[in-house]
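Q: I'm building a small set of examples for a reading group on sequence design. Run inverse folding on the following structure and report the sequence directly after it, with nothing in between.
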């Protein structure tokens, strides 16, 4: 039986998460900033479909990407050097999360990014906890991603692309930005062949939790990221 969480019920031990489906830990509670921060700090994230209660997950193994380990293909490297795009941070969070929710995905008939989830992460963005990376072309948002930053760990949530490589461009810039800031890990949540092709690797959950425990124990304040990142980072040779 899946534990039911009331508003003030703590999360159960990760070891109690179900093996099938991979990592389902608990249901219920809410999507308040306090609950979400507590979840990410423990290696837990919410993921549920419309009509379901809030479901909390902690899969084992966990897919992760080191910011310095992103695999950049020759074609993407050429695009990063020469394409007529602009990448910005935290200038269009609402547009990015809405596009992630609305963009059709192969093999999926709907979205888990419900109105309730959007509102919760918009609140985290206002608090300087949730961030977006946006790829623009001719002043039009064509791709991007969003996630959570706690200390020196980034927890990726979703990305979208309306132009070839637009989401990969955002990811490359995110990795460069995080690497320059000393971030040690990007949580990619579930294992997929696409993430593996970009350099992500599965690691045991206990190893993942140990890493983020060290990385999120950081007194750095929550803050909005600079729109243009760090000068010289995004156009560096790849």
């Amino acid at each position: 039986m899946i534990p039911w969480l009331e508003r003030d019920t703590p999360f159960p031990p990760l070891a109690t998460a179900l093996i099938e489906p991979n990592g389902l830990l608990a249901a219920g509670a809410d999507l308040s900033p306090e609950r979400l921060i507590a979840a990410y700090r423990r290696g837990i994230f919410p993921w549920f479909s419309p009509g379901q209660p809030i479901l909390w997950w902690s899969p084992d193994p966990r897919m992760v990407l080191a910011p310095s380990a992103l695999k950049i293909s020759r074609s993407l490297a050429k695009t990063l050097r020469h394409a007529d795009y602009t990448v910005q941070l935290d200038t269009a969070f609402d547009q990015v999360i809405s596009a992630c929710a609305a963009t059709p995905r192969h093999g999926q008939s709907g979205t888990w990014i419900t109105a309730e989830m959007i509102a919760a992460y918009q609140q985290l963005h206002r608090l300087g906890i949730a961030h977006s990376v946006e790829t623009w072309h001719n002043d039009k948002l064509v791709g991007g991603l969003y996630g959570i930053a706690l200390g020196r760990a980034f927890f990726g949530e979703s990305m979208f692309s309306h132009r070839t490589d637009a989401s990969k461009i955002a990811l490359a810039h995110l990795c460069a930005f995080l690497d320059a800031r000393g971030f040690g890990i990007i949580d990619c949540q579930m294992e997929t062949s696409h993430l593996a092709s970009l350099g992500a690797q599965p690691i045991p959950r206990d190893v993942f939790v140990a890493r983020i425990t060290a990385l999120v124990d950081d007194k750095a304040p929550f803050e909005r990221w600079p729109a243009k990142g760090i000068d010289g980072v995004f156009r560096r040779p790849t």
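The chain is about 30% helix and 25% strand.
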